[in-house]
Amino acid sequence: MLDQETIRTFIHVAESHSFSKTAEALFKTPAAISYRIKMLEEDVGTQLFMRTTRIVQLTPAGDHLLERCRQWLAWLDAMPGELQQINHGVERQVNIVINNLLYSPQAVAKLLAHLHQKFPLTQFLISRQVYMGVWDSLLHDDFQLAIGVTGSEALANNVSMLELGGVSWLFVVAADHPLAECEGPVHEDKLRAWPAINIEDTSRNLTKRVAWLLPGQKEIIVPDLSSKLECHLQGLGVGFLPAELCQRYINSGQLVSCEVANQRQPSPLSLAWKNEAGKAVEEIVALFQQRDEAIGDFLQNIDLSA
């Protein structure tokens, strides 16, 4: 009923609105094209085209079939390559989770451009998570690779890791914030008077972590690092930001770095991946091992010596 020739004929008639144009394009007679469409309508038991002397238009059922036929044809055209890909150990889909601290649209686009060129038939899905949410996605969801898991030791036996370096932190406030005038280490009793700007851990199964919050201190929770940075710039609250991220705002005078009594230690981050992963994941691991340009933007906030 819906062999490839019928599907292609139906699509061509639907797009050209003409049996004669379709016949010319497919090197058939108009009568042959008309007969094939007539047999298709009889097979599916409903009218697919409204015919006039001037034009051929799809019925609502024809519109629906056109969408499906395009999907089927694309699937049929891609199938030989997909089968070859599977035999060569290349995944049909790779899900990648990225730590919010390392995420940027530019970094994601550059990596995906590289991967699409090398694995054109593989589908890639990107997720952005916070703190233990990165580990959670790798261990409990269908993700094969994580960029920026916390720590340097795997939380499961089936996971391999590559240390990337660490994120160094600076305690910063807006230039016009009262704490900006403080000299020497600022103690907790003064810090507690101002809200802590934090990003909530997105973990659902593992224990959530809080980046920095003093007992009794008000907390303002924002969804991502860009929002947290903007809250600091607006003088809304206080807290730690990645040193690499906020240094240019310190240089411009928009932010001031304060010395605090309990300085936050660098946070080690790693690349982590499932051991049974295929060729596409192996390619990503190799890019990070070689510090390739395709993944360079992910390392902008990383201190390689930390």
CATH superfamily of the largest domain: Periplasmic binding protein-like II
Compute the separation of the termini in Å. Answer: 65 Å
Total E-strand runs: 12
Shape call: elongated
Broad CATH class of the largest domain: Alpha Beta
Please provide the ordered H/E string of secondary-structure elements.
HHHEEHEHEHEEEHEEHEHEEH
What is the count of DSSP helices, taking H or I runs of 4+ residues? 10
How much helical structure, as a percent, in the residues?
Answer: 25-40%
Structural class: alpha/beta
Low-pLDDT regions: none
Number of domains: 3
**Main sheet summary:** 5 strands, mixed
The quaternary organization reads as single chain
Nearest-angstrom radius of gyration? 28 Å
Kindly report the spatial arrangement of strands forming the biggest sheet.
Answer: 4-3-5-12-6
> How confident overall, as mean pLDDT?
91
CATH topology description of the largest domain: D-Maltodextrin-Binding Protein, domain 2
